[in-house]
């Protein structure tokens, strides 16, 4: 079964899940200009929001999802309202606004139920699971991810299956069960490949590369990341590409190639800053200061930067990232 991009609705439903975001944006703008019904307009505005979000054009994405929601609300279309709220919640998570992301995604799930849209409900709950996971709530989100995985399999949604598998794999990786995580990432990669979901495949390859690196195979990990990077560039997946590069920095750092890792992290900070992705930018800064510490940066400067990152992660509610800073402090400072 081929993966479908459920967020492309109405006249845009024929768009491939692998369509370049530039292509999506052009077609969505054309549909918006030609729309004759509220449903067509809401769908076009949603696609504009999603294309702009993934391209890092966050201000326009914010305007577009809100316009989609207002159009759908005025038409009394609960399903379209749910999709707009899902887009807004996903954007809020990307921008580091986690309480807002929880509120919007919770509303999206409830509105999808009212509109009898099973897929929108699943996407919204998956968004809640991912938001909790990046904040470090592994126990609670594991149960939700597993529930959503069962639902996605039952409804025959390969793209959603891949998302759930990757979320579960990330949790097992963070909990130290690398064998289980690798099995899940490998399954996700196989399903994404079979269903021609290049976005899901790129994220799965990143996860496999991470675990391959942890097993000591540096060259193998870098090759996997290079393969995933091709898909990210072809589809203009700016956030996925930045996280791919951050993982490259992680692989080089683990291998003791600190000067190379420093260069990669510094470039990745610029990528995340450009697309207004504060979590990724802060994690790249953590990698950068760790690399610089191994190359002779003064302990006082390292301590100052780690304190700043600790404060930033604490304020954002990123509990796992706080733990990472504490671990770095133990490893790097006397």
Automatic annotation (TrEMBL):
Residue intervals passing through the bilayer: none
Protein name: Tetratricopeptide repeat protein
A Pfam entry, by short name: TPR_12
Gene source species: Saccharopolyspora ipomoeae
The keyword Coiled coil is assigned to this record: yes
Record's keyword annotation contains Coiled coil: yes
Domain of life of the organism encoding this protein: Bacteria
Residues spanning the signal sequence: none
SUPFAM superfamilies: TPR-like (SSF48452)
Swiss-Prot/TrEMBL keywords: Coiled coil
Coiled-coil parts of chain: 211-238
InterPro entries named in the record: TPR-like_helical_dom_sf (IPR011990), TPR_rpt (IPR019734)
